[in-house]
Structure of ComF family protein:
Amino acid sequence: MVDGFIERLLPQRCRICDDATGGPLLCDACTLELPWNDAACVRCALPMAAPGTCPDCLRRAPRFDTAWAAFRLQPPIQHGVHALKYHADFAQARLLGELMTRRLRARAAALPERLIPVPLHPLRLMRRGYNQAVEIARVIARECAITLDLDGARRTRPTEDQIGQSRAARRRNMRGAFAVRADLAGQHVALVDDVMTTGATFDELARACRAAGAERVEVWAAARTP
Ligand SMILES: [Zn+2]
Ligand SMILES: [Zn+2]
């Protein structure tokens, strides 16, 4: 209690270099040095040398309209994502959510009407106690004043670990994994998760959202794997 009180009286310090920032969680210099995913595929956020459309998306377009990942999954972002997912370090959700919000506010495109965090299967949620996607989405929803939809979508069956699987295998593995009960008729929605790997999970959730009537489906991830 006393510690928390004193902390509030002290100036904010940068989480990385410990310089006084006078407000935000990171100083400007450290923010600039983060592994921002600025050059990426406009459809699936795959890191590339220059913005464009990647060969995979040219061959088969994803079922979401566009994907945006704020960062590449590299240090120090990688450590933050890990600490949130496996060690319940919720300060990382605040940091990631606020950094994502800064970029989202700066873009010209219209914001969605609804945020849908990628749901965990209830068994996994019970074991972990929280969903890291919800924790990040909560921050963005509050900062950008977008409706946070926590029960519009659910995962109907547990899916196997997808590490090391091919794109086609991941897609097969995800088929029918989500049910959307919200009425999304004519809506613009954004699906939110901590990490985007191949996009198979988002692709399947986007399919379910479209079946529920969604008109535009965006994907927002904190970090993208190479
Ligand atoms: Zn700093
Ligand atoms: Zn792509």
The CA atoms of residues 19 and 104 lie 26 Å apart. The chain has a mean pLDDT of 91.
